[in-house]
Amino acid sequence: MKPQVSVSTASQLSAIILILTSSLLLGSCGSSENNVSKGNRTGTLHWGNGTEPQSLDPHIATGVPEHKIIIALMEGLVLKDRKTLEPRPGVAKSWEISDDGRVYTFHLRDNARWSNGDPHNAHDYVWSWWRALQPALGNLYAYMYFSIENAKEYYEGEISDFEQVGVKALDDLTLQVTLKNPTPYFLQLLDHYSLYPVHQATVEKFGSADQRGTRWTYEGNIVGNGAFQLRDWKINRRVVVERNPYYWNADNVRLNEIVYYPTENAITEERMFRAGQLHYSGTVPADKIATYQSNNDPALRIDPYLGIYFYRINVETPQLQDKRVRRALGMTIDRDQLTQRILKAGQIPAYAITPPGTMGYYPESDLRFDPEAARQLLADAGYPNGEGFPSTEILYNTSEGHRKLAVAIQQMWKKHLNIDVTLLNQEWKVYLNSVSMKDYQIGRAGWIGDYVDPNNFLDMFLCNGGNNRTGWCNPVYDELILKHAPEAKTQEERLEIFTQAEKMLLADMPVIPIYIYTSNNLVDPSVKNFSGNILNQPSFSEIYLEPDNGGQQ
Amino acid sequence: MLRFAFNRLLQAIPVLLIVISATFFLVHSAPGGPFSADKAVPPEVIRALEAQYNLDQPLWQQYVSYLGDVLQGDLGPSFKYSGRTVNELIAAGLPATAELAMYAMLVALIIGISAGVLAAMRPNTMQDYLPMSAAMLGICMPSFLLGPILVLVFGIHLEWLPVSGWGDIPGDKILPAITLGTGYAAYIARLSRGGMLEVLSQDYIRTARAKGLSEPLIIFKHALRGGLIPVVAFLGPAFAGLLGGSFVVETIFQIPGLGRFYVQAAFNRDYTMILGMTVFFATLIILFNLLSDMLALWLNPKLRQQAGGES
Amino acid sequence: MDRLQAMEEKGSSLWRDAWIKLSKNYLALFGLGVIALLCIVSLLTPWIAPYGYEEQNLMLGATAPSLEHWLGTDIFGRDMLTRIMYGGRVSLMVGFIATAVALVIGVLWGAIAGFVGGRVDAVMMRIVDIMYALPFMIFIVLLMVVFGRNILLLFLAIGAVEWLTMARIVRSQVMSLRKQEFVEAAYSLGLSQWTIIRRHIIPNTLGPVIVYTTLTIPSVMLLEAFLSFLGLGIQPPESSWGLLINYGVETMEEYPWLLIFPGVTLSLTLFALNFLGDGLRDALDPRTSKD
Amino acid sequence: MALLDVNGLKIYFHTRDGVVKAVDDVSFSVDSGETLAIVGESGSGKSVTCYSLLDLLPKPPAKIEGGTALFDGEDLLSCSLERMQHFRGNDIAIIFQDPMTSLNPFISIGEQLIEPLIYHPDKARRLSREDASKRAVELLDEVGIVDAPARFNCYAHEFSGGMRQRVMIAMALINEPRLLICDEPTTALDVTIQAQILELIKQLQQKRDMAVIFISHDLGVVAGIADNVIVMCEGTVREAADTESVFYRTSDSYTKRLLAAIPEGAKTMANRAEEGQPLIEVSHLKTYFNDYSSPAARAEKRQVKAVDDVSLSIQRGEILGLVGESGSGKSTVGRSIMQLVPITSGSVSFNGTPISGLSSSQLVPWRQRMQMIFQDPYASLNPRMTVYQTLVEPLLYHGLANSNNIEQQVQQLMDDVGLARASMRKYPHEFSGGQRQRIAIGRAIATKPELIIADEPVSALDVTIQAQVLDLILDLVERHNLTMMFISHDLSVVRYISDRVLVMQRGSLIEEGKTETLWANPKEPYTKNLLSAIPLADPKSERERLSS
After folding, report:
1. Would residue B81 count as lying in a domain?
2. What sign does the CA torsion over A49, A51, A56, A59 have?
3. CA–CA dist A513, A518 (Å, integer)
4. Which of B26, B120, B174, D138 could form a disulfide with B196 if both were Cys (CB 3.0 to 4.6 A apart)?
């Protein structure tokens, strides 16, 4: 009968509400063991990984989060020491370098296997490097190969025969690489993921070799040669890797799994770490660092990082054409105050572009904080006491950290030079567009080294350097970097040439170095064998979990 | 009723078409392409990438072929997540977002309606002022503020609930649902108070009283249905808003939902992703508005039979 | 319209009567007082602020409230009281002007759609649907690129978002009003549609419009913070309450006063606006004077 | 002792503007099988008195300041809410004025009917849903709902006004109350329906030996059914006596005024209709609306023929009455002539010029020459405009005044319609219904029109006010030489005011004639029915009529 209808709908509705409520609440009951203590029991490392990886293909990927996953899944010929970054045997158990420093012969391990059990040999490298140099693949790190003979020529289509490129499999277990010039940092490059090998059969199973965006890197498909293999990839949720039983050194791998969390928000990640949901967080908000420091919390690890934070100056801007003006700007940034009062994470004031100590290189710089001299320079340039200096704009991409620094620098320039500077933040892609179009006056920039060598920093400012973007061009500088340095007989001579080049750069000051990055990591005390290094590169195959007495904090 | 729904869906077609077209040309005219990066990208790489995603064709040609694909339900490949299709990504993000929206709505309805009804039962007393003042704060309390406060209190200090996650740790859905639901709860409280006040002053409530029915029976059986019609009409836009507006909450609580995709796509100039999400959200908005209108019709027997004189 | 000019002169009596009634409503007067005080302080800020708004003291850094800095200082050592006072200038201006933009567009749009009805209504409301569905952030970024950074643009962008809901509210009001006999009476007087909308329809939608407006102003202030954060709108070292709250949230554990004081200011504004709004709604409804 | 004994009842309303004595020292009693009528105009406190018996008044602002109401010896005014819920519906039931709003539109009437049974406060007396439904269907049948089992599941909007009131009566009677309070149960109904409902209440009372309190503003209505009458005015009892004494031998001045105000007899003024060209000529007018009442109607684009082929003419100076029951299309005829609704076919000429089909701007000069007065004085005035603004609008819009003489013109209008000049700056809500209707009339005559169409201008007003407004209208017609179309469902009023009468039924004109001729000798059965249903303010003849 219909009179019941209203009552029954009401009861149905309340039933639905009841079910929904209980499902919401039911989820909340249960054990309260957090990820860290559970992970310590099961050998699972919970890793805060910044953002969602865009690709796990080593020849396509570009970002840091991707890097952290790929190094677990794959391995190059050579590994680095987790502390000193000295080359250590990887897939290659040993190697010889010819006397002229141009020919490298690698002897591969006979027990190296792909994660599906396939044998792993020298031909894999030849094929993989051929793939990495296909222009259609859009490999942004193709330039990492350019120290190899004819690699650049092949990539740019000047030669079409890959045979002429300096890489050869002498036999199944011997790989010979011929370089254009002696390149002291070549062994380091081999540990960069862009030179990792990929499994030919798997790649070709899901598409052609030079095709982007095939599904070969997904869970269930991907085959690697690293200590771990991909088990699960839930977008925006987690990436899970587990031990690879075929890894040549599998017996010494002590972690069972690593769970990577794409968190994006540094504040969220820090809270997750504090609540015991993560073993590791790699992005600590600046204001939190002080709190950790004042508590003497052992979880906070601060290490120098091979990266420089600087301001580019568009030298075509009328009021910034005069290098005295640029120097004056550089000399009125109180870097000590910035690093101590704003950044607060042990960052090192930078007075040159290359971080000191890079492969034994210590740049000589006459740059220092000297408002008196700066005012004089500005006066010489025609702006005594900042009078008549047009309003100038600092461009930075939207981010709290960049904003803080810009606000402080704006005020320093106002105070010391009496010039008006405005700030402009742009959303990331707009900012990239503005900078590459040179549609800016002063622009925030940063550079993280791909490998440990001054060259990686100084070749940015070649006339035609894609990353120059300042409009500054000095043929003498180009010649030093491109011609004299590669031809240097000894490392001392080479570094001397770099010193000379860097001095020229600093004298003209198309870029204002500000500080040298540090890597700020939060690492749970139970994580062992985690060593800070200037590339901030963990060695997952060595890490293990062992709670201290008394267990978790 | 069906006819009403059909007509509304018919009207939705031009709306969707305009939304797609406007968004298409909007995103393509925004500065910065999908492949620009921090480190300079060699022009040959850009060319190779553009060829692969047909970005080297004239814009109108891209537009036509995109429309064709959309009509077949194919939203194209994502530019950013190499190898994933937009359909796949939406399917990956939807469950969490939909679930979150549902719980948030539940929170909003339970808190909002009880507060609104309580307030309406004794207007202009403390029982009215207290929940309504709270509601006012709730409306304007941004989730980027409420979320962190809840996390600090319940997650870090009291250690009652997880600070993030979705379905990983028991109870990790509670704080996000509350954070997202509060603003809507506040709005629903105001709406249901207004609706209930209106209904409680109606003659038929007096009739019910005169019949000797108890107060709870009057409130729940006689008043609630009419009093909640404004709330029901608000449900559609609210649910669409919950689905689309969950970005902040998803970020704070590390929830693998659609909101994060949308914002990431916009920042990354992932053209197909932006377009796909826009089409998807626009469809949802239209659908939910339709559903809530139909629900409001269904609740009112008179309109139910007329199926809406004027749509 | 000239013929109605004389009417307008006498027509102010609704507002005059409203004022008389408002002046008897203490809660509304309190709200008005707070808003007026905030506005006056904002106007006078450059002369009465204890410090310069960009005056940094990096060595001092973030300090809790003290005798020198009543509301503490931020991480640059800038005085929070000064920052809040200057922020109020931006927030109040954005709040009032953008809301006014939304108000004018929304009320007109909703009134016309609801009053004319039929096809016109359908088309106008579908346009609202489209606007709802467009990706807001892309829209903002484009505006920013096309027109450059401009505070006016900020008002436009915010107004462009907020008017949609207003239009819907007004439309549903108007749809019920237009069937009332006094509208029919106005028709039979021969008044034009526009005159009827202006004189008979819109004044009778004031109640819900005012209430929604008082809710819109604070949410506009917060939206401004989001847009400024994206790079549209104001730039450091200038600030607004929304931005101060935004920054405050990030350091709420370390320096809670950076969140509490702007938050309290915004909440106070919100409540004041709400009291004023409720009071205005009652005052503008001649019927409420006698129960 | 009587079943209900009310003594010294005092109810005050405490408002922001002070204390209003809504009911001041009212006493009465009523016994089983007896009908007590409480008569008074709006604001007299008659409804407040009865609502207080069931504690249905909003508190605050209402407060009972004194008195007792003993029902079976128990004081209703001081009992607990729980005890009150026992009385409500079970011992004392109430029927409200407006059956449109008094039934819950969201719940089927069957469900509403059985609620008092299945949720009975006395658990022992609760019935099962099935038993209750059976009982309800029987009762529906008894109150005259045809096909009651099927109608049981319908919603309120599916019933006509009269049927709804029958449902209300059934609902009131379902627990067999001993006292039934009827609050103006027929005021919102058509005259023929009113007669039926009165009849029904009478029958049911006799069958059940109930006590009935019948509240009405219309003495005519109570004449036939009341045993005793109390007349209330401004919260006090002016007269309390048996019905015949009140009607035939009253000494109270107010009661006399009430009786005198009942429109009776023919028009006292001369017919001023001029010969020659009619001012308004309507030929073959058809006004159809789209029918959205059901999905089927919508799908088939069915139309409601509100006005179907109506031809009529109005002579200059004439007052034409248009009568019909609700839904007959009489208002639509008026609106069609005014060009307020689009007409489907046919033509309307004003003074020989066709005005149907003109655009709204072309109509402006014609609008000045014809004006309309609406039924509801609450809805027809913009609540946010003062009287002054309302009256100024037509004057200025049509250029009939300028800023120099505007004040004076408005004052003239206020004088014309009998409003104090001082109240010019007040808002509509500050006036009583009658005064509001005067404002509306003032607005209509402001443009100095030739024709006024009055759509039920007095049906929302109390009798005494109604009489005043009718006299005002007649006076204005005379003074301004107006032509008028007077639309009403109230035949007495139409007889009192019009020269000629048209009768409408279902969109068509069915009868026409000079007023007195028609009254004396109606031809159509429908017209006869209408005329015979008019309640008379004469207990003797009214009783005869009801029993016949």
Report:
1. no
2. negative
3. 15
4. B120
Q: Does D515 touch chain A (CB under 8 A)?
A: no
Locate the chain D residue with the closest alpha carbon to A7: D111
| Lowest-confidence pick of A377-381, B82-86, C134-138, D132-136 | C134-138
Phi–psi pair at D354, nearest 5 degrees: -65, 130
Pairing of strands A167-171, D18-30: unpaired
Residue A10 has pLDDT above 80, yes or no: no
B301/D115 CB distance under 8 A: no
Is C126 within 8 Å of B16 (Cβ atoms)?
Answer: no
Contact A338, A346 (CB under 8 A): no
Domains along the sequence of chain C with CATH: 24-42+74-283 (1.10.3720.10)
Tokens 């009908």, located at residue: D35
Q: Which of D94, D103, D158 sits opposite B204 (nearest CB)?
A: D103
Across the interface, of D94, D108, D294, the residue whose CB is closest to B210 is: D94
Distance of CA A31 to CAs A28, A34, A271, C92, C133, Å?
9, 9, 20, 49, 43
Domains of chain D: 4-103+176-260 (3.40.50.300), 317-330+359-533 (3.40.50.300)
pLDDT, greater one: C2 or D129 = D129
Which domains are present in chain A?
Answer: 9-52+227-299+524-545 (3.40.190.10), 78-205 (3.90.76.10), 304-518 (3.10.105.10)
The verdict on a CB contact (< 8 Å) between A237 and B40 is no
pLDDT over 80 (residue B204): yes
Phi and psi, residue A316, nearest 5°: -85, -10
CATH number of the CATH domain containing B233:
1.10.3720.10
**A467 vs chain B: nearest CA distance in angstroms?**
5
Q: Do D56 and B209 touch (CB under 8 A)?
A: yes
Give residue-wise pLDDT tens across range B228-262.
888 887 887 787 778 777 788 888 888 888 888 88
Q: pTM value?
A: 0.81
Q: Flag if C252 and B310 touch (Cβ within 8 Å).
A: no
- pLDDT per residue over A442-495, tens digit each? 999 999 888 888 999 998 999 988 888 999 999 999 999 988 988 888 888 999
SS (H, E, C) D206-272: HHHCCEEEEEECCHHHHHCCCCEEEEEECCEEEEEEEHHHHHHHCCCHHHHHHHHHCCCCCCCCCCC
For the cut 70, the answer to whether the pLDDT of residue C137 exceeds it is no
Contact B3 D89 (CB under 8 A): no
CB-CB under 8 Å, D363 with C203: no
